[in-house]
Amino acid sequence: MAALHILKFQHDLSDDDVVAAWVENPYWQFFSGMQFFSHQAPIDPSSMTRWRSRLGASGAESMLKGILETGLKINAIKPSDFERINVDTTVQTKAIRYPSDARLCDRVRERLAKDEQWQSVPKPKPPLEQPPDGLLGREEIRLMYDLMIAALQTDSTRVITYRLPISNLLSSLGVKVAAHDMSHYSQGERMEASQKRDVANADLLAGLIDKLKAVTECNGSRLFDQTTVAFGSNLSTGHNLTNCPMLLTGGGSGIKLGHHLVASKDTPLCNVWLTLLRRSGLALERHGDSSGELKELIA
Fold it and tell me: How crowded is residue 227: how many other Cβ atoms within 10 Å of its Cβ?
């Protein structure tokens, strides 16, 4: 709670915003004393308001005194640090330049001149044509897969996550069943919709894998050999979080390919992520609720 308030006032955030930012920031979580990254909010933001009300001004002063005493005790600060206070003037509001400022006008002129020169520079033809407007479903996913390959091939990024637009995919397949209803599938319309989705996803994923294999890197290897692809779901059926399906391929993590693995009961999915991360060169002790590597995956 104390750490959240330090972050709140340091970054001038509301209670809601500081809690939301805490969930996404591993440095803030480490600062708060967390040993492992958490995807859940530490508290309800309203708890901060109630905590401040109970603490009061005198309580805040006592807490600050305790922090300073602890700092002295562990030699993080010295008594001499309290003899003089330096006020950093850089926190003051910066001088505002008005549009009539000659230096500002000159900077704009320089940028416009550079932009004009760039217009006449010959541009390489991109490997992807400009897509038409209104792509949905299958074509939308196929285009995103092509963009992923282009991004990896040009080293624009080395990590990509993508949540498939299942509702759009179903619409493009002519399926009338809603995506959420389909997850509660049973014999009949829902089962047929689920099968159509799975066939379409398998076809699109196969296309992505084929293109990864077709791209040759500068060292002669295939892009597929330098990439790890994980395709799966956080649900198996309904609201069931166990026995989640997962497809792994690519040579980037040194895992066994071409086999079907059934993990033992209650094996955390994070064991898969830990295995992939370690085989990709990251020295991690654990990941989430992992209990160790999934040895059957290692080549």
Answer: 21
Residues 87, 135 within the same domain: no
- Asked whether residue 18 falls in the same domain as residue 77, the answer is yes
Number of C-beta neighbours around residue 15 at 10 A: 19
pLDDT at res. 115: 85
Interatomic CA distance for residues 41 and 144, integer angstroms: 31
Average pLDDT (99-110) is 78
Q: What is the CA radius of gyration of the chain?
A: 27
- 221 and 148, same domain (yes or no): yes
Residue 96 has pLDDT above 70, yes or no: no
| CA 252/CA 237 separation, integer angstroms | 30
> What's the DSSP call for residue 175?
-
Q: Given 40, 74, 91, which residue is the final one in a domain?
A: 91
In total, how many domains does the chain have? 2
| Residue 159 counted as domain residue | yes
The string of pLDDT tens digits covering residues 263-280 is 888 899 999 999 999 999
Over residues 52-77, the mean pLDDT reads 82
What length is written for the chain? 299
Partners of residue 298 on adjacent β-strands: 255
* Range of the structural domain that residue 144 is part of: 131-226
What local confidence, expressed as pLDDT, does residue 169 receive?
Answer: 92
Tell me the whole-structure pTM to 2 decimals.
0.58
Residue 296 lies in a domain: no
The span from the CA of 177 to the CA of 167, in Å, is: 9
Residue with tokens 């990254």: 37
66 belongs to a structural domain: yes
